[in-house]
Fold this protein.
Amino acid sequence: MTRTTAYEHIVINESGVALIEGTSMKVIELVLETTAHGWSAEELQFQHPYLSLGQVHSALAYYWDHAQELDRDIEQRLAKVENLRGSAGPSALLGKLRAKGLV
């Protein structure tokens, strides 16, 4: 079950995550792509042709109006990844590459 927002095309899922309506695309995924690649709204739409330019702009507007909350969510997700990475230990592939002197 989702709930609507004041932003056309943006809904909040049962976990409290902002999504583009009718898709599984999270608002923070588009934000992270913008940050990582410096993509404009037009480039985001080109990279995700199933999204309209209006959906992309609505997601970005939602982000800018909720930046603190979403930035906190991004930081928490990155911390979780780092914790998982640390607890997993070194990868077997990395060990093999080091043994062959490739890394």
